[in-house]
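thread: overnight batch results

M.L. [08:02]
morning all. the overnight job finished for the chain we discussed friday. pasting input first so we're all looking at the same thing
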Amino acid sequence: MNETDKATLTEYIRTALRMIIDPEIGKNIVDLGLVYDIVVEEGGVVYVTMTTTTRFCPATDFLKEAVQACVWYVPGVEYAEVRLTYEPPWTPEMMLDVA
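M.L. [08:03]
and the structure it wrote out:
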């Protein structure tokens, strides 16, 4: 898998993750800025680093499971792992300005 293939797969994953809606805010997790990083490695191994709006968000488990399931269904992904972080802490300024 070359760098172009990895970049393309990353964009497919990012697009797929836009289907996941934060149940409290009602917007997708990508545009909310909850997805910090997507790393695609050889063999279709994918690591997603994300956060939640608050450290003890009641939707944390739901969001992590939804992200992992969503990424698994993207063609070309052979393994998906979701890593949760609170560094840096999420703020509303992280939301994408989407018209």
